């Protein structure tokens, strides 16, 4: 006999996690549900939110610690990751929308993965992941997260 509660439990979110120079952390969703969780639950007001303009793609979050402010170079790296995790991955230069997470909201009745943003900044970048050899590993944190970091 199946356990009814376990059959109705939603799957755990699957997120990509990147660590940039100077310790900046970036999270990227894999599915519409992951994007909702990332943009609406995990994001803190001062975090930066990114998404490729006009195409399907992952929501990307640059986590900002209290009292820190990312440089333009870090913001551009985060935008390049957002472009990479989109349908524009194989394109040349791609427009990526960015805003503080406090300006991201979900319209009433919108489908999973759909948000609206205010106070948009647009970065034009080439799709890319952080430099270096990347490896993926799963972290045992309850949520399934794929960590991408440089090999030493």
Structure description:
- The protein is 18% helix and 32% strand.
- It has 152 residues and is α+β, with helices and mostly antiparallel strands.
- The chain has one domain.
- The strands form 2 sheets. An 8-stranded mixed beta sheet has the order 8-5-3-4-2-1-10-9. Strands 6-7 form a two-stranded antiparallel sheet.
- β1 (14-19) and β2 (25-29) form a beta hairpin.
- It starts with a helix and ends with a strand.
- Residues 133-145 have low confidence and may be disordered.
Question: Keywords for this structure?
Answer:
alpha+beta; 32% strand; two-stranded antiparallel ribbon; 3 helices
What's a quick, concise take on this entry?
The protein has 152 residues and is an alpha+beta fold. It has 3 helices and 10 strands; from the N terminus they run αββαββαββββββ.
């Amino acid at each position: 006999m199946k356990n009814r509660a376990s059959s109705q439990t939603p799957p755990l979110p699957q997120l990509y996690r990147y660590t940039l120079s100077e310790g900046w952390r970036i999270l990227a969703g894999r599915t519409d549900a992951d994007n909702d969780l990332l943009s609406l639950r995990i994001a803190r007001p001062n975090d930066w939110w990114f998404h490729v303009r006009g195409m399907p793609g992952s929501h990307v979050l640059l986590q900002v610690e209290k009292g820190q402010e990312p440089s333009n170079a870090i913001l551009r790296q985060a935008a390049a990751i957002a472009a990479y995790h989109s349908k524009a991955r194989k394109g040349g230069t791609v427009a990526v929308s960015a805003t503080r997470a406090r300006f991201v909201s979900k319209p009433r009745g919108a489908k999973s993965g759909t948000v609206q943003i205010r106070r948009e900044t647009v970065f034009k970048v080439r799709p890319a992941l952080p430099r270096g050899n990347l490896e993926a590993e799963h972290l045992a944190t309850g949520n399934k997260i794929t960590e991408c970091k440089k090999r030493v």
